[in-house]
Design goal:
With 94 residues, the protein is α+β, with helices and mostly antiparallel strands. The protein has 3 helices and 5 strands; from the N terminus they run ααβββββα. The longest helix is centred in the N-terminal third of the chain and has 20 residues, at 19-38.
Length: 94
Amino acid sequence: MNKAEFVALVQTSGEYKTKIEAEAAIKAFTDAVTTALVKKDDISLVGFGSFSAGLQKGKSGKIPGTDKTYTTQDKMVPKFKAGKGLKDRVAAGE
């Protein structure tokens, strides 16, 4: 599903009058989640899931076919854990 299809789905599900209103709602949600994660705050939406920011440790590896190695830095990454309600609905195919 691309963005245009998702906006149309949100417009129908949220009973928005226009696609512009639905797109504004999506943008507001994504901006709010981004802002909270940048502040390292967790977001928990009961029945849907939780968003958090976690530290991903750096790793080292070897480039295949050569003797060169590399090391990546530690970094903060967004994480999402699906809630029971979402898992159950997806499993049931609703």
